[in-house]
Write the structure tokens for this entry.
Amino acid sequence: MTITLGSRTRECWDGLLDLVYPPLCVLCDNKLVSAGERATRLCAACSRQIKKIRPPYCVMCGRSLQGHTENVDRCWECCARRCHYDRSWSCALYEGALREAIHRFKYSGKVSLLDLFSDLLEDFLAENSGVHSGMDAVIAVPLHGIKLREREFNQAQALAAVVAKQLRIIDASRCIRRSRPTRAQNELDRNQRFKNVRGAFAVADPRLVNGKNVLIVDDLYTTGATLDECGRVLRAAGAQRIHCITVARGA
């Protein structure tokens, strides 16, 4: 027998549950007081630390160009280099509470934080249709098998599944693999990062990307080296437009 609760009864039941098991901030474990805090799963203090990236964006890497006095459409870094992807965007700056959240998600396996990243991605994609307009497939940046066994999950794959569901397009992550292990990028300087990932990826099934527009998903954009190398091999396999999105990026 199925019991259906009326709205009044459900409100009372939810209120009782909040008293016994008060909802907590996913980052600092403080009690969530307001309806807004419960909706975002963040307390007001942690929420204030997340600084969303606002337009105008660099037309290549997605860095915010707010505050630039010159009428430019690219940041200085993108003026000095050629990218193998067409455009990249990021939701927020990699600092404060978001930096801590990504670190816990990535290295401590706190998968409950996926809801926070899902909300950030959903809001950004809703406000920036150019990210996903005409995209045919979502592709996660792959981990090498050694690192995957260490972490037990690929954070980029979890994010890609979220984006694919939100956009209602296929997740073609299996088409690309990491062909050799690499050093952790956070141990290297800018030039070393590009050298570190050169030749580290291979397309396992070109049929999934040949002639397609693809959206690469990762957790963090720092120099763009990893996304650029993924873009290079996907382009060589026949991908047409290549866009990228990450939850966060360095300043």
Remarks:
- The first strand starts at residue 87 and ends at 93.
- Residues 1-5 have pLDDT under 50 and may be disordered.
